[in-house]
Design a protein that fits this description.
about 325 residues, alpha+beta, two-stranded antiparallel ribbon, 12 strands
């Protein structure tokens, strides 16, 4: 057996003192680290609270801006309707004045009675208005000279790219009155908002209407019965090229539309039974279709692609263009 002295007796007084100092210093370091960590956590928590408050403010601002934008959009639509009514009433008033002056020049009425009738004319138009020389029930109105010129230049620049079409002359252009246009556009906007890409819309020309349906489409908008069986499926075909659209349209007429393309899938395989876009898409971009039509468009073949939509609410008519050769 051996004797082991107590541990404390093995250490000198200097060593014990040194250990006590180290222990005290380590405790102080732990306290300082804890204090520093608590301050850092408090700073981070304060930053998070400020960020949360700013996010709430931004959400409130965005919500108020959306409300303002919606009210402005409604006001714009209301003003457009009011403007369309005023324009129609003014045209009718002007037509009546011109007719009165014409009769006056022909000597059928005296000046006093003509002035009296002109002053008594109401600015409220009749149900029927004269459009392009024929009567329509407040459905289509002729566009202004500036609007006509801009659209004519746009169409002519595309037509002149094909030499055989340079002799085509645009005679008149019709559009819907403001009331009908607003109703159809509300339906169209609602459908576009349901697309995967609501902002993807294009002005295109309708590849259809040989059966004399374009006037009805301009008046009532597209309907499910306007779907046609084509090489790439059952739907409505549109193109960016007016010359291409003329090959499918009623002779002498061309319909420009706004189309909600959404997320379009490029398709090259023909399938006449296709009646819906592929999964995850809103429309398809088709390959080339053959056209063999007797007349000024006979045996024309172009490489322009076409868009195919499968919902009649996905397009709204803009302008009905009259042209001659």
């Amino acid at each position: 057996m051996s004797y082991l002295p107590p541990y404390s007796e093995c250490l000198s007084s200097g060593t014990v003192s040194l250990l006590r100092e180290m222990s005290s210093s380590l405790g102080d370091d732990i306290k300082r680290w804890r204090s520093t960590s608590v301050e850092a956590y408090q700073t981070q928590l304060s930053c998070l609270e400020r960020m949360r408050h700013e996010i709430m403010l931004l959400r409130t601002t965005v919500s108020s801006q959306e409300t303002t934008m919606n009210s402005l959009t409604n006001e714009i639509d209301r003003l457009r309707l009011s403007k369309g009514v005023c324009e129609r009433e003014f045209r009718e008033y002007r037509a009546q004045v011109r007719a009165m002056l014409s009769r006056l020049k022909n000597g059928k009425e005296d000046l006093e009675s003509a002035e009296s009738e002109i002053m008594s004319l109401s600015l409220v138009g009749n149900k029927d208005s004269l459009v392009n020389g024929h009567v329509s029930e407040n459905v289509a109105v002729t566009i202004g000279e500036e609007e006509f010129s801009d659209l004519e230049d746009e169409i002519r620049s595309a037509i002149c790219a094909v030499p055989s079409y340079k002799s085509i002359r645009i005679t008149s252009i019709e559009k819907q009155n403001a009331e009908n246009s607003a109703l159809l556009r509300n339906v169209y906007k609602a459908r576009c908002n349901a697309l995967r890409d609501p902002n993807m819309t294009m002005k295109l020309y309708y590849c259809g209407g040989k059966g004399g349906t374009l006037h009805r489409v301009l008046k009532e908008g597209f309907q499910p019965k306007d779907m046609v069986v084509g090489d790439f499926g059952v739907g409505m075909y549109f193109t960016q090229n007016p010359v291409r659209a003329m090959q499918y349209s009623e002779p002498g007429l061309l319909l420009q539309c706004e189309v909600g393309i959404g997320n379009a899938e490029s398709v090259l395989k023909m399938d006449q039974t296709r009646n819906r876009p592929p999964v995850g898409f809103d429309s398809i971009l088709t390959g080339e279709r053959d056209v063999d039509h007797i007349g000024i468009y006979s045996h024309q073949r172009h490489n322009e692609l076409q868009y195919l939509v499968f919902d009649s609410k996905q397009a709204v008519p803009l302008y009905l263009i009259y042209f001659t050769v």
